[in-house]
Amino acid sequence: MGRRTALVLVAIATTVLLLLGLGVYVAARVFFKEQSRAVAADVLGDWRGVDDASLTLRHDNTFEARELPVHIQAPDRFSAAWTGSGAWRLSAPDRYRRQYVSVNIDGYSVPVFVDKSDKATRLYLTHNEVGEGRRYWMDRS
Fold first, then answer.
1. How confident is the model at residue 35 (pLDDT cuts 50, 70, 90)?
2. Which residues pair with 96 in a beta bridge?
3. Domain locations in the chain?
4. Where are the alpha helices (DSSP H) in 33-84?
5. pLDDT, position 18
6. For residue 40, is pLDDT > 60?
7. Using only C-alpha atoms, what is the Rg of the chain?
8. C-alpha pair distances (Å), 119 with each of 11, 25, 47, 54, 141
């Protein structure tokens, strides 16, 4: 086999490996629905839950909540849904690529998680039940 043939085979093998790698990357993004990173503009505005709970996140990093069911996520801290206002901030993604809006309620930071796996951004609180994985969803109003 000549030198030229060997170079052509190496070029073809390299191209095949690159295309295979790209295919695996695209398939992983599609099947595992990797979330894109949220920015403040993704979460600003008015959010509403199924039972009319509401959360308004403002540009000045203040929020207002009405009947926000924080007791499902932190039952040791809250005994009922909460109404009031305070400060918020958007977290950087953690090692599991989750992001949350941290709302400061009476000196306690409650994470309201951000979901960007679909086209629309959604917020949610998690129920504090081991092994259940239930979520309280909030959508833009």
1. low
2. none
3. 1-32, 40-140
4. 40-43
5. 78
6. yes
7. 22
8. 39, 20, 16, 21, 16
